[in-house]
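Fold sample X.
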Amino acid sequence: MKTSTDSIRSHPSPDCCLCGSKGQALYHGLEDHLFGIPGRWDLAQCSNLECGLIWLDPMPMPEDLVRLYAKYHTHDHPTARDSLSRSLYQRAIDQYLRQNYGYLTGTSRALDKLLAVFLYLHPARRADADARVMHLPAIPGGRLLEIGFGRGETLKRLQDLGWNTVGVDFDPIAVANARAKGLDVHLGDVTSQDFAANMFDAVVSSHVIEHVPNPPALMRECNRVLKPGGKLVVLTPNTNSLGHRIFKTDWRGLEPPRHLHLFSINALRKIAQDAGFVKVQCSSTIRAVGIFLESLVFRRKNQSIRPQGTSRALTEAFHYIEWAACKLDKSAGEELLLSAAKSELAIGQS
C-alpha cells in the first residue's frame, strides 16, 4: 500500500480488470486540475489491443474515494434562468420526447411541432434531448434505478415523466440533496443495497462507471436487478475520442484521481457482454463537446483549476465540428453510449 501526499491511500493495480492482461504505462505524474486534490497519479493501458481499458495504477483505496469528492460539482445548486428562448427550447424538447419516446409532457400544438423540427437541425441539441431521458422510451409506472445520480436532475425528470425511480450514490452530500427534493435514494454502492433480483425495468448511469473501483461487479449487479428484457443505459467518457487524441494528458476526460477506469468502445462493449447482457450496442456521441472545450482551456491556461466556460459561439461551432468528425469516424465523439438488455431467458436469476 502506498500513501500519496494528500493522504489518499492507494494500492498497486497492475492488471486489467476486464481481461486480466498486464497494463502498460500510459501517462505519469498527472494532477487534479479541477478540484485541487494534491498528489500525482499514473495511468496504465491494457496491453490487449482488443480491450484497451485505461486505469489508475496505483489505484485509490475504496475507503478513501469519498474524500475525493469534497468539492465536487454535484454539490452545486445551479440557478435556472427563465427566458423566452429557454421556454421555447423546452417546448421543442417536450415535443421531441413526445414524438420519439412517447412521453406525454408539455403541449402539442402546431408551434411545438415546428420547434421540434428546428431541433433536428442541431444534432448536439437532439443528442442532449435523448440523454435527458437516457434514451429510454416511456414506460408509465416502470421501475427505474439510477446509479450515481449526482444532483438528482435526471432522476427527478424521469420521475416527473412517469417512472417509479430509485437512486443510489456513495456521496452523502448528493444523497442529502436528493432526499430534500423528495427523491427515493440510498447511500452507498449498488452492490451493497441488496435489491431483489428482476426488480427494475431500466437501470441507467451517466458518467459514473469511470468512478467505480470494480466495474465488472457493477455490471453484473445491473444485470441481476433488471427484469428479463430490462434495459441498461450507460454514458461515460470515450478514450478514443478526438479530444483525447489531440490533448493527451490535458484531456478533460482523464480527471485523475476520480476517474479510476476509462473505456473505449471495445472495452465498454466487452464489460456488458461479460456480464451477460444481450443486444449490446455501443457508440460515441456528440453531446459531451464540453469535454473537448475544457481540454482546450486546460492547455491554453497551463492547466488552471476549474476552467471557466467558453463562449456560446465557440461551443456551437464545436458541436458541428464534432458532428462532422463523427461522420468520418464513428468513434470520435467525446462520450460513449452503451445500450444493452437483460436476456428474456433470465427468469429466476438471483
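Fold sample Y, listed below.
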Amino acid sequence: MKRRFGAAFGATLSFFLTQAQAPAPQTATLTVKVENVSPKGGDMRVALYTQATWDDDKSTPVATGVVPAVTPETTIVLQSIAPGTYGLKAFQDFNRNGEFDFDFLHLPAEKYAFSNDARPLFNDPAFDRAKFTLHAGDNTITIHMQ
C-alpha cells in the first residue's frame, strides 16, 4: 500500500513540477495612439495585419479595435497578440458604417493612417514601409491621421 501511494505521489509531484517549469505563453498588448483625429466624430477603427495578409482586402486581421473617435487623439488598446512583425491600418469611420468610404472621384472620404505613418500613393503603402515589431508585453505606437 505504501509503495502505490509513493509511486502515485511521485507521478503527481513530477506533473506539477513539469507544469511549473513550462514557460507561460508570451503575448503582447499594443496601445495605438491616433493623432490628428477629426472633430467630425464617428468611430476610430484599427486593424493589425501580417505581411501575408497585408495586401488582401478580404483577409481577416490578426486583431481589430473600434472605439468612438475623440479629438485630437484617440487611444485604442489591442490585447493578447502573439509577438511578431505587423502592419497597422486605421481609419476614422465618420458615418459608422464599418467601411472605408470614397467620394465620387474615388478619393478617400474619411481620414486614414498606417503604422510608421507610411503614406499611400494609389493604394495601401507596401508592408515594408508600415511594418513594426511587436514584442511580448506592453507596446505603444503613435500614428497620424491623413
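Sample Y note: The chain has a mean pLDDT of 89.
Also: Residues 21 and 144 are 43 Å apart (CA to CA).
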